[in-house]
Structures are given as C-alpha cells and as structure tokens.
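#structure-requests
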Amino acid sequence: MSAIFNFQSLLTVILLLICTCAYIRALAPSVLDKNKTGILGIFWKCARIGERKSPYVACCCIIMAITILFSE
C-alpha cells in the first residue's frame, strides 16, 4: 500500500520531509532560501516548521518511532 493511502505512512513521510529539510537548511541555508515561492517553496516551509517547532517535531518523531517498532 502506498504512503498516500496509509495514514501512518503518510505521517512518517511528512515527518521525514520536515526533518530532512531542516537538516539541509542547517548545513547549507542558501540552497533552500533562494526558493521561497513556487513548488520548491514547500521545502523551505518544511525547513521553517522543523526549525520553529523542533520540540514538537522531535516528540512526534519519537512517538512515530515507538509506534513503528512495536506495531505488527
């Protein structure tokens, strides 16, 4: 089943996207800062969410990891 139709997989993909974009922006800010609008602006917005809401994103990642480890 693809990640679009499975809610847990969709949340995992979104969390990974947010964490990856925040990590890339921490290493090379110019890569994401030049694309603030358009379709590539989604990655800039995900990086901003990862930076500003990092405690909440970290808690969600931990909860998701526990859920994946202990689910069937």
